[in-house]
Amino acid sequence: MTGCLAPGQMGTYMLTTDGNDGPATTGYQLLGQPGDFNQYMNRRVRVVGTRSEEARERPDSNVAAKVEETGRSQTPWPKLQVREVDPIGGECGTKP
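RE: above sequence
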């Protein structure tokens, strides 16, 4: 799966998959070693792992407003136990 690696709440890491420059509304909370994620912060990455439906995390408070505006569900983000992270090039959250 590909997306942008972004900081989450309270030291968590998120893979955002909706591809916009505003607050993320879809993606995964990443579980794994912080050292694996820090070097790729705010970069486009490919992540390999196992999705966990058991525990879900809500995105940050800014996302709730964006979700309400877009009419999307406020379903918490699924967690992904990461086995591998690879950069695929490009920065996230910057406009050309």
